[in-house]
Amino acid sequence: MHRTKVRIVEDALDANNTIARANRSDFDRHAVAVVNLMSAPGAGKTTLLERIAAEPPPAVRLGVLEGDVQGSLDADRLAAFHVPVTQLNTDAGFGGECHLDANMVRSALGSLPLEEIDLLVIENVGNLVCPAEFRVGEDARAMVCSVTEGEDKPLKYPLMFRACELVVVNKVDLLEHLEFDLDRFLYYLDQVHPGVKHMLVSARTGEGVGAFRDWLAGVAHRERVAA
Amino acid sequence: MHRTKVRIVEDALDANNTIARANRSDFDRHAVAVVNLMSAPGAGKTTLLERIAAEPPPAVRLGVLEGDVQGSLDADRLAAFHVPVTQLNTDAGFGGECHLDANMVRSALGSLPLEEIDLLVIENVGNLVCPAEFRVGEDARAMVCSVTEGEDKPLKYPLMFRACELVVVNKVDLLEHLEFDLDRFLYYLDQVHPGVKHMLVSARTGEGVGAFRDWLAGVAHRERVAA
Fold first, then answer.
1. What ipTM describes this predicted complex?
2. Which pLDDT tens digit goes with each residue over A51-92?
3. Residue boundaries of the structural domains of chain B
4. Which chain A residues touch B177 with a CB distance below 8 Å?
């Protein structure tokens, strides 16, 4: 029974990857770079994106695809910045999926203004487990980890920290009020994903957000060169 | 295809509930009260349990079942308090399950010292979506929500907030450093789960932990009266 379950899971991931590749080639055809942004609930993805929406990378037209179990709170926050935002809810027919998969993103393709954007940020459902397992057609994956979550998170959710090429360490403005040991966090991070790029950010104060903006510009530039 | 998926999910939840009832009846036979404790990653479940392990409710023998994708960091922290702790990892054969289900808890029954405890706290995997969908044989469900996660969480993860009979609002020692609007959080909470019990706690400073201890004592007492 256990083996059967593993087989089903492997088949599901294979099917997902096939659809993810189709998404990727549609994005490429429109020369749209795509970032899959992941985190635990409340780590600050939307606040970070508000900063980017207020001041996008130079010459990069930004769009956002918002993944949520229910509601459109985050999409409403971002739409206030006059950035095209598309909402994707995962709660159809069930308690709610805990992640986006390639098929869900595919179902939203028709609603995305691909001709009018250069960079699409997909804000995934807040969860440190399953989103890391499902590619959606992105060029790059980044995660936001808040210092309020404790320094042990890379060890507890290794797949997520391994799946990303960038780890944004957020809420550093709170460091002075916490016992968070940053060196220990970075040591654990290096254990599970040696050499992964990271940056220290406070989406609230704006500290370090420029580095994230530059990183996004770099992903968009890669896509332009490849196209 | 969508309908087929819904059917598979419903069948899986039915099967889960059958096993959860078997777990519950085994726990009842040993007069062990069981609390399923859930939260997002890093909300402070383990720190709260360290407080309880250091000073359990009077005349209540505590045991803990630790659910993690990988590793035994939390179990090691709690074992230091000489409380019986059993580790359950969900990463067998796959990237890792994002929740505990009844069958996983069943597989751990043989390792639990049910004769020697009155109250078992099951620390679920850090996730605000799927754990709410899977009963494991518990008497009561509680969740920990950190004020660092923002006040919108009840609206974004309504099933989790509805599934619990207690919401522990943690890290209130940080309130003065945040823009968290407690009244708004409580208003949202009341919208998704009218009248649900909540308490304000700082696991770090110990503030409010007594109320959680009393609540645990009440769950254990209910079990004793029913047995």
1. 0.92
2. 999 999 999 999 999 999 989 999 999 999 999 999 999 886
3. 2-221
4. 174, 177
